[in-house]
Every structure is written in C-alpha cells, then in structure tokens.
Predict the 3D structure of the following.
Amino acid sequence: VAATSSPVEGTLESPIPETGPLRTRTDSEPDLGFLNQLIAPDQDVLRIGGEIRQQFESWRNREFGLTPESDDDFLLQRLYFEVDYRASERLAGFTEIGSAFKFGSPFEPSPIDQDKLFFQQLFADVTLLDSESGHSHLVIGRQTFSLGSGRLVATRNGPNIRRSFDAVRLIMEQGQWNTQVFVGADVTFGGGAFDNSPNTDRILWGVYATRTQATVDGATSGADAYHLGYRNRRGRFDNLIGKEQRHSIGTRWYGRRGGWDYNIEPVVQFGSFGDKAIFAWTIANVVGYTF
C-alpha cells in the first residue's frame, strides 16, 4: 500500500518512490484540489484537502467452521479532512481529522475499523536549517509515516484507520542523503470522539538513512540502512505475556535500469520476550520487468 505523507514533510528529490520501484504515488497539485478551488485560499499559506473512502467486504465462513454463523458482509467508511497552515518560512502546522465506521457486520468492530472522531495527525513542522548545504526540520506531534518500502513501519493504509505515532522526528537532507532520527509511541484507536491517547507501553525509535543516485542514462539506484528499536511492556503471543523488546538492523537496495527494477531487503532482528531470547532474519526481494 502506498504511503501517505503530509504536504509539509520534506522529502529527498528522487525518481524512485519511497515505497519501492513499482509502487507509484502521484500527489495532486494543491491548486487542483476541489476544496482549494471552492474556497481559493492563498496556497503559500493555507492548503486544505480531504478524502472519502467506501470499501465493501464480503466474507464466507470467516471462522473456518469454528462458529455456525460466520458469514460477514459489511461496509467500511472513512472520512478525512486536513488543513496545512504555513505560519512562516520556518514554521508550519498540519491537522488531519478522521472519522471511520463499519456498517452491517454482526461482529464487533475492531479498533482499526471504527472510531467516531479522531486526530489522525496533529503536528508542527519546524525548519532548523535551509541552505545550499542541506535542509533539516523537526516534526513534533501526532503523525503518520512509512520507512523505505514500508516492510516494517508503514502507514497501514489497508484498514479503515491508518497508523499514527505521537512522535518526534528529526529529518536531515543533504545532497543524495536523507536521514531520519525518531522516537514515538503508538496511538490507540477505537472508541468515542477525540479520546485517543498514545500507548506508552509500545515505543518505536530508530535511525533510517537513504542514499539515492540517478545517472544520465536513466538508470536509478538507491540504498537504505537502518536500526529500529521496539519495546512493548505488555507483549502477548498466544498464552504468553511479557515484556517484548526487539532491535532490527537492515538494509535495502533498490533501483531501475532499462526495463528492470529491483527491491531487495535483508533484515536481522534480535532481542527478548520475557525471559526468552529473540533471533530472526528475513530476506525479501522483488524483481520485475516492465514491457
């Protein structure tokens, strides 16, 4: 699922989308937006937008025969309204209010399917450095973001409610390098209006660096290197409950040459769950050819 980022978030100019070579995302120009045409604000100061998504799902025997009544037909609806306000060249604010409902299902809606009214994003963006040598800014508050191809950290755009963090992110861009340093807590959804709070039991932190290179013959390439830390004081797996702590060290190589594209990502993970040790690894690769 392609990532969704706020308009004020600085990004490194690159011919390869942050979600990988094949997954494209086209951001509409602000002056083409329906709400901006309707209200016609000053685009350099105020930008407004929104989203309406209706998604119908039909399940048959979703409990695999464990319960007699397990068919499920339902409609998922989500509404977003966002405001991007630029107070000055160095200070901007972004607000995204959401509403999500699940209609027609006999099953209790999950927290990522229904929440009456909530702040999906609410943050300030402070520019620290803006010069020929580079750009750096600090994003403070509730925000959504994806890292790399979204394999480990993504906006979770498939469910009705995206994933948010109450976080602090330092984003530094210099030449072909884009580096993020961040720490944040998972936001809990589901419930009434504006009753969401950060779950301080679940903390994510890390460093994520990307170097992108483009050549004159049209070939492009890039590489990521990262360390992600994750702690959950109340981790649960089957009947086990305990403190969970994981460290993921990985890299990603991606690019496009001629009709070929590739996206290869090895990761090693270690840590602990209760008194048990964690050690895992994965190598994911996507190679394609476009005719």
